[in-house]
Design brief:
Length: about 130
């Protein structure tokens, strides 16, 4: 398999895994909840949903960083997750504030995937160097 073919297939698989992560954790939001005692509103996601999503994205970025180059992992993961999140948010938000959320999701996903994929790539290079000694 050529490097180009590996990159294309890897990018497609990475995008699919990223969208599947959004589908598994965040596509079925349960709406906003109001605490009857304090009146505080929370939602639309539960803390455990977001934590599970973030941990799964860390795993996806780490696997991507191990097998692919970070310059491919970061934009693919970022665009795929932001597009999935943004499409749902745009369809369910009448205020237009979903755009602000999408920008924040984009920045956070880019930063997180950059750190994780670079760290994983560094670890792979160290492991390869030790094996070649």
């Amino acid at each position: 398999m050529t490097r180009g073919t590996r990159s294309v297939l890897g990018g497609l698989l990475l995008a699919a895994a990223t969208v599947a992560t959004w589908l598994a954790w965040l596509s079925w939001e349960s709406g906003y909840r109001v605490d009857p005692e304090t009146g505080a509103t929370s939602g639309p996601y539960a803390v455990w949903q977001v934590a599970g999503c973030v941990l799964t994205l860390v795993l996806v970025a780490a696997l991507g960083g191990w097998w692919l180059r970070p310059w491919l992992v970061v934009p693919v993961l970022t665009v795929a997750f932001t597009a999935a999140w943004g499409a749902h948010a745009a369809a369910t938000d009448d205020s237009g504030l979903w755009v602000v959320g999408a920008v924040l999701v984009l920045i956070g996903t880019a930063a997180g995937s950059l750190v994780v994929s670079l760290a994983t790539r560094w670890l792979r290079r160290r492991a390869d160097a030790r094996r070649s000694r």
